Amino acid sequence: MEGTTTQVTPDNDNVAQTYMALSDSTPFHIPKPQQGDGKIAEGAAGIQSNVRDLLKFYKALMVAKQDPEKRTPLKEIEAITSAHIPLESQPSASERSYGLGLVRTMLPGSLGIVGLNPMYVNPMPLVGKGLDEPRLCIYHQGSIPWGLSSAHLLPDTNTAIVVLTNSMANNDVADWLGQLLLETILDNPDKNDYVNIAKDSAKFSVELWLRMERNLEKHREPHTTQRSLANYVGIYWNIIHNWCIDIYEDNGILKVCFQQQREESYELNHYHHDTFSWQLTRNEDARRGRFPVLDPEFYLLRFSVVSNRYQSNQLIWKHDPDVPSGETFYTSPPGCISKSTITGSCLTNELDAVD
Prior knowledge:
The chain is an alpha+beta fold and about 350 residues long. It is built from six helices and 20 strands.
């Protein structure tokens, strides 16, 4: 696997250029990623590879699964490929479960559950309609701002299908291509029309951005006032003090950046009361090279401004759908000596000054 590495090699010209799709599907070039080499997201997206190497890897995985006694660097394959978590909300005759990083589905069945397409197509198409016998498909998907990927395995025939793209499209095109190729290999009599499915899902994904804009406007309370911008300015820290939101004023405009990276700043617009929005359009999001997030709450920052010098201003950001109340970030109160000395007692609502 000579083309697989976790090293960032800026001078390597044998690397795909990267793009984001605009709302009209025009590709917009974005810089090559710098994942890997100890960066924060290396565990999720730090391996660079190619189709040839991944086909070798998945072939070795299937061989190891069929012959556990065979010498191989791949260990615990049975545990990795076995069912651990059911993915059906209701009992079903057909298996759909999650292993350790791999999804198991008996065909006919729907695929793509760990990708982006279920946001755009519901229900997902049934793959393998008309098969004489059920077939086990094991698959994995990846989605990052500069590319999409899918791998579908048929262990009973040692078949692997790998699709890599060099852009974030308006749908999970790697998933649709993988499913199309899978049905071609299965040669089932009742195949899905993936060309039209892809067109419809891309159109709907763009529509979701417009829906989000309408949703935000629908819930906005008009004619409310804001405080002086200086009241909101500050660096807001999470409770364990390893992530911050920097709110600052620039020529009369309130802006936000994360981790004090001001070269990647966003304008804040008054939404209502002490809430501000940094909402982006699909094209603004793409030109920034950002992963598409379609939750309206993600783009709202709610401030709680206090006048007591021994208390922190607070900011609530609902960045995680699994935490519906949002996460609270705090400015460092005057009594705390420095970032390195701030403790949990310095981040509560009622604070004592530190001598």
